Structure formats: structure tokens, C-alpha cells
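Annotators were shown the component list below and the corresponding predicted structure, then asked to write short factual statements about the assembly.
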Amino acid sequence: MANKTSLTQSNVSGWGFALPAFALMVTFIILPFFFAIWFSLTNQRLISPNPANFVGLSNYTQLLSVGTILLEPERDEQGAIVRTKDGEIKYPRLRKFTRKNPDYPNIQGMREWFSWQTGPNDEFKRVILAKDVVFIRALKNTFVFVLVVAPLQAGLALMLALLINQKLRGINIFRAIYFMPVVVSIVVVAFLWRLIYDGNNGLLNNLLGAISFGWIEPVDWLGQPSTAMGSIIAMSIWQAVGFHMVIWLSGLQTISPTLYEAADLEGASKWQTFRFVTWPGLRNTAVLVLIVITMQAFGLFAQVDVMTNGGPLDSTQTIVFQAIERGYGKQDISGGSAISVLLFLIVLSISLIQRYLTRERHA
Amino acid sequence: MTQSLVNSDRLRLFVRYLVLTLIAAIFIFPLVFMVMSSLKPSQQLLIDSGSLRAFLPVGDISLDNYFAAFQRAPVGLFVANSLLITGTTVLASLFLCSLAGFSIAILNWRGKAFVLSAILATLTVPFETIAVPLLLMSSKLPWIGMEGLELGWLNTYRVQIIPFIADGLTIFLFVQYFRDIPKDLVEAARAEGATWWQVYYKVLMPLSGPIIATAAILKFLVMYNQYLWPLMVVQEEGYRPVLVGLQYFFQLNTAWGEVMAYLSMITVPVLVFYLFLQRAFIASIASTGVKG
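Structure shown to annotators:
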């Protein structure tokens, strides 16, 4: 019993104390994770009389297949372009190519995602198709959400943290208020903001109307594709920015006061102090804040479920919303699992990028 | 000269407070709106939201919406369910995760490195990615209850509690905390003949107040605000938590006054709790940032 390791060496106690929690984690986190991978390779359903079959990667190809086709305008006997009454160029119907057309095996069963005019006189139409247009839109929307929310929320949170880091009487009261929405459930917040965003009598419309003396017309914020996602973004930032303010604050407080005193003695301006003292001291916090926001943002679900249900016109569909709609709503466990695995792969690549970035900083 | 200096200092201070207050208004207005609206008849609520009256307790003020909310839905049941689920999970989590954290931080055992890396790996798995397979698993898991062996965990309390007891973050917080406790304390207790169990609950746990508070607050927030999972696994009214209970208030014509009363009832107690324990709440969120 002389050396230190043997003093604390105990296989029985060690396993005994760790096992209850570890067994729960294996059962309810690790096992379902491997099940997700397995189910995504089968045609498993929640309730089914038939046993599930192995189907390889077909769930994934179903979700991710995209194709393209160049449509030529329809021409009459003289070779002139046929136009509709409104002057629009007439194209052959997409169905002719995507339904049982052996000449176009790559785009069988696909639907239009989006298109644009092309060619020397803009007479052609390039159409991008996808097998699962709704999921592709969900993927795109989620990435837009993350790419807007991550920098915006991180930046606003930093500004709030700098504001709160001042030595002022009563500053803790303001800190407590800024943090308040974090404590409130996102579901409750989403319900409240549904009223705020309301198209007829919503607080936001009334406020905008009042400050512009009626110049700004009421907008149905959640009811139209162009504003729905933006509204969800604004609300999500409002709810979570206090969380990241606190993480920035704890980063700010690790910066030694002597550095600020030195900067003061050198006569540095406020901006110079921030640029050369504060910001370098916050680098690791910055990476952390961005990663946490990104991971949270990829999980976007409750706001959509409460406020828009993915609509209007799929403009607020998200990855998790689709995973739940299929896995739970349509009882399609395999489809929902495949989406979940894709989400995991995305989140994993982001945490690998985080490791890479932080490692470089330490070197 | 000095006079104007003092004035400009005062002005600067005033501007600072003005900015801070305006920002505070942005964060607080929906919550004030919620509470004030809960006191008004639905008709007046909608009209008031056209002006600053939305934030003031004016007009026909009463607690009628609260009584109506209790009429419309079993509010007491939902609150009791949430408290039961949250309370049980928090307590079980504190116990089992601190025990595992103690084992990993203090003891040496074969396979520890593997267990720790598996636990840390789960931090990269968002719950959303395992919800769907966990739903299928839960529909088939066995349970030994009053009537002997039964299959399926859907529509129960246990399906809302047991999967959330152990999590990587809580264990990790305890591991970190225990590692910083001086080894001499543990060695002294061992030298006096204490068992490992006694070291855990007589030496370490009494020193762990701050980390217990942190872990409890984080778990409380996660559990009380559960939405996605109970939505999937609970169809029976008897087991519903507060947020899923919200569905009762959105039938054919939504009575907004009652909605606001219900939202206030499930939110304000948490906010009051938060305001009392503000420092602990904020410290616990800050500690999740340590892992970077």
C-alpha cells in the first residue's frame, strides 16, 4: 500500500459506483444512437406486422438525391417559341421526364426544387430537381438559420457582455433581466411571440405602425414565406442571447486587470484596448460560443412546431422537424433515423472543426 | 470648468443607464405583456395590444382567466406531473452522476479511461438525433410493475424520467469538481479506515454544495422545459407535463386570456425562483462554458 495508485486502486468500488449512471447512458443514449444508424439502413416502422428488411443506403439516397435538367422551350412548326397568353415561354411538362421515362433514369420520381432562365436569349430553363424536395428545403433552411443566428447571436451577446461588464451601481439587476428569457421555456416564448407577430393586432405591427405614424403596413410575419424564417430567427436570438452573454462574461473575467491597467497607462483608446487586450483574451471563448450556438441552432424544432408547423410553403421546415414528422408523425422510424444520422454527422463535423481550431490556437 | 466636467460625467452616466434600460425593456416586454394580459378578458386583451395599455394593468382586471383555465384543463395535474418528473429526475441525477463522477475522479479501476471517453463522446450527440430510435425502444422496453411483467413504456412517468437521469455534462461537472478537491482529505479519511462509500458521502459530498446547485439548476431547466419528448411518448392526459398541456388551450377559438393565465402560471414561479437564486443560475450556465 505504499504507492499512490494502489491506495486508490479499486476495481470493484470503481465499477460499482460508476455503473448505475454508465449503464443508463449506454441504454438511453449510446444504444439508441447505434440503433439510429441500424434503423436508417432498414425499412423499420413503429408498428408493422412484417419484420424490417435491410435496404442499404436507399433511405439516404431517397433524402439526398438531386438532379438537373435543361428544358427547351416548346416550338411550333416554324420553329418559333410558343408563348402563353401572358407572354411566358411555354416549356414541356416536367412529368414527361420524371415519370417512367427510360431516357432520363437519373431524375426518375424527382420534383422541382427551383429553376432559373438561361441560354443566350434566356429561352432555356435550368431546373434543379430533388427526390425529397421538402427535406432538401429543410436542410437549406436549417443551414440558413445557423449561418445567420451563429454570428449575429454571438456578436450581440458579446456586446451585451461588454455592456454588463462595466462597474456601475445596479448592474447586476440589468444582467438578471437580460438573462431572464433563458429561464423561460422556448415553447412559452414561442407562444408569446406568436401573439406579438400576429398579422392583425400583433404588438409588433402596432409598434411599427405607431413609430412610423401609420406608414408601415401591418405584416403577417409568420404567415408569409419571405418573413416567417426571419421572425423565428429574431425570436430565437431574443430568447438565447442572454445565455451566451453569460459565457462571454466568464471569458471577460479571466482577462487579467493588470493588462487593462497597462493599456490605460499607454494611453490606448477604447477600441485599441478591445482590439489588443480584450479580443485576444477571448479567442477560446469565441470558439466555444460559436460551437454551442451552432449545435443548439441545428436542433431547431420547438419554435417551428409552435409557430409555423414548417410552413408557409415549407419556408420554415428544419432537419429536426422533418426527423420528428417522419419518425413520429408518419411512424417511419427508418426515414426519421436516417435524418437523425445526417444531423449527427453535420454536428460531428462541426465539433471536429472546433477541435482543429482550438488546437491551432494552443500551438 | 469643473462644473461642465461634472455635468458631462453625469450626462455620460445618464446615457449609459438609458441604454441599459432600453435593452432591458426589449428583454422584459413579452413577459410583462404575458402577465398583464392574463388579468384581462380576451376581448380587451386584443384591443389593448394596440397600445401601451398592453403592458399596464388597466381596464377590466380580474383573476377570471385563471379560474377559467382550471375549468378548461386539469392544470393542477399537469403541474403535479411536471414537478414529479422534474424532481425525481433531478434527485436521481444528482445521486448517480455524482457517484460516477466520484468514481472517475478519485478511484483507479480497469476500464476507466474507456468509460470516461464514452461519457464524453455522448456530449456530441444531440438528443434530437436519438429521439426517433428511442421512441421505438421505449415502445418495447420491459417493466416489472404491479401486474407482473409488462411491455412498453409509452404513456408512463418512467419514460419521461429514466432516460434523462444520467447525462455526460452532469457527470463531467462532478468529475471536474472532485478533481480539484485536495487528495489529502481523501487519503486522511482512508487512513482512518473509511470505506469508499463513506469517503463519498461523508467527505466529498458535504464539500460539494456549489456543484450540486449548478447540476441541479441545469437539470431542472432541461426537465421542466421538456417538450419534444413528452409530445412523442405521452398521449394520455394523466401523464402529461405542463408544456404539452398547452394543447388544451388551442381548440376551435383560442381564449387568449386563458392562454396567458396558463403561461403565467407555469412560468412566473420559475422566474421568481430564478430571481432569488440569480447568482447560482448564472454561475451554472457559465460553468457549462468551462468545457471548452
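Statements collected:
1. DSSP finds 15 helices and three strands in chain A.
2. Strands of chain A lie at 66-71, 111-118, 124-130.
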